[in-house]
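Protocol step 4 of 6: structure prediction from sequence.
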Amino acid sequence: MQSLIHFFNPFQILNQEAQNQILAISTLQEFKKNTILQPIGHTCQTIYFIQKGLARIFYYKDGHDITEYFAHENQIIARVESLFSQRPSQKGIQILEDSEIIAISAARLFALYDDYPRIERLFRKIFEQGYVDTVNRLESLQFHSAEERYHRLVQDMPDLLQRVPLKHIAAYLGITQVSLSRIRAAVK
């Protein structure tokens, strides 16, 4: 679980007691490829840290499976809008390869905030970064071409093309698989 503590350090250094408090509300779990970690319609109660493996946030629109987000080693994944509103999410989380995940109980985490302001500050910074990443993703879809989005994806997550079915990558980029094939052919 030390990988979780190392993940925290750039956001906020925690003293040993605060680290121990977070580790006490965290559990290491293993999941097989294609497991639905959180189904659509579920109210998010857990924050997940991917120690090993890969997951995605997805939803369905007009019968199409759309990938909104990929998370791999040393990243957090959660349905934050559901976590904070305590309403069921229209999105789900799927494991894309055999994974080791550290699950953090959100209710128990939030209960620590009053006694451990550094923990509250840490997760505020993590959630702020997630918000900025979401805005950047939306702006990418609004202002960049499919080719630019593809190049950015390859730059940011170079091994993703070998780890994820192309249908999920195409959906993430907001294009068809045929368009993705054309872009990939032009790059080679």
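Step 5 (inspection) to follow. Residues 117-143 form the longest helix (27 residues).
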